[in-house]
Amino acid sequence: MKTKLVYRLDKPRSVQKYIDEAPVWRDGTPTSRVPMTSMQWRIWLLASAGKFFEGMVVFMTGVALPLIELDFELSPSEKGFASAATLTGILFGASLLGGLADTVGRKRMFIIEMLLFTLFLFGVVLAPSLNWLLVFLFGVGLALGCDYPTAHLMLSESIPSKNRGRLVLSAFGFQAIGALTGVLIGYGILSYYADEGAWRWMYAVVLIPSIVVLILRFFIPESPHWFIDKHRKKEAEASLAVLLKRDPPYPPTINIKMPVMKVSRSNGEREKRLGSGYKRLFSQHRRATLLASIPWFLQDLSTYGIGIFTPTILVTLFGAYNTEHHTVAAVIQNDLLAAKGTAFLDVFLLVGIVVAVIFTDRVGRVTLQIVGFIGCATGLLLAMFSLFFDGEGQVLMLFSGFILFNFMNSMGPNAQTYLIAGEVFPSSIRGKGAGFAASFAKLGAIITAFLFPLFLASFGVKILLLLLVLTSLLGAIVTWHLRIETSGKDLETL
């Protein structure tokens, strides 16, 4: 006779306890895993899509930038503005829009950000001048910035604690898939449409999938954690029922236990003194804020510097770029050669994120972040030493250094900073905390994107790589000093 599962009918419990609940066999033995529902997988897929679009658009800029430079006849400073526009938008979007997820809801901002992304991306494709292009790229960044906290919260607040690290990082890993896809799209379009306007088609390719994702985001439930934080018990139970819908029904009934609010005169005075929202980030949760922000800032200095300008670095070092011939054919040929090398290196972003998914819950976020920072420094140092050699030795050392950097960065700080920022804050300010951390991090990306071309022209590749080695080592030191391990802890406990 086939054994059937039965389900516990316990007293009222918290949202996370329902999400983490595993079925038991008839003899009371718990099953080995918490089964994910189709709705939980749908939310995971839609959160993954946002990171995919970010990786595609931001890193595709590295391929599109030479054509944009030719199309609009950009000066070095204007090229810096073009490369930094999207990142600047991410900076403001993460805090100004992402922080609204604590006020108006996770789902609402999840939809609004994708609507803004689609509209501004359409503007990029049709931009008639540099000024308009900068406006639209900034708008795309606003939407992508909002996605940093909202996508993390929509996913992490909807899945079992046991799976949180792996699932959040696997969704974040789509940034690397998007980066590789963006470079391949750029290469493919250049191969069949060798024209200075080919960059418009690169961005246009993203429009159709963004519209599909926008529509699908209307058909998911709001985070029950957010409803509970707003003391809306009935809506939380209805949302949780949709999230955990299974056949047969499990759990059969939902009765959420509201958190007990103990308020005394001293507690009330303390809350008044601490304030709410962003003020609490720098008083009650200062250590968490520093941990979430500073290592991410240091990591983005190298991630976006190397990521966006890898084509430029490869062309500069290997002499494909001829400064005396800025013809369309010459620029496109240079772009194609650089895109090949960039695509090869981006593969190791994927390998790194796979390793992160496997080990983040076993080894811990902090350990992987520290090891990753040290690995990044080692890879960049190897790339810098390659400049003292010639011929095949230089090529081997340079690519080995960039391969090690991409792998260790994707396994460590690039993945773990994103994961930690969405876990170390309480639900009431989680959107603001994660949003601020992402905004502060993108300040580093903007500095790199804007100054990298100028530094490259003024000081050369050696000095730039040495500076990035030092910032990576500093990231490891700061992470160790401020460490807060979140692996294996549910969000309510945190």
UniProtKB/TrEMBL annotation:
Q: What is this protein called?
A: MFS transporter
All copies of domain Major facilitator superfamily (MFS) profile, residue ranges: 43-487
Recorded topology in the membrane:
Multi-pass membrane protein
Spell out where the chain crosses the membrane: 43-68, 80-98, 110-127, 167-189, 201-220, 301-321, 341-359, 366-389, 395-412, 433-457, 463-482
Primary localisation category: membrane
Which controlled-vocabulary keywords does the entry list?
Answer: Membrane, Transmembrane, Transmembrane helix, Transport
Question: Is this entry keyworded Phosphoprotein?
Answer: no
Q: Which Gene3D superfamilies match?
A: MFS general substrate transporter like domains
- Provide the family line: Belongs to the major facilitator superfamily. Sugar transporter (TC 2.A.1.1) family.
**Which CDD domains does this one have?**
MFS_SV2_like (cd17316)
Asked whether the UniProt record includes Nuclease among its keywords, one would answer: no
Q: Which domain of life is it from?
A: Bacteria
Listed Pfam families: Sugar_tr
Q: Where in the cell is the protein located?
A: Membrane
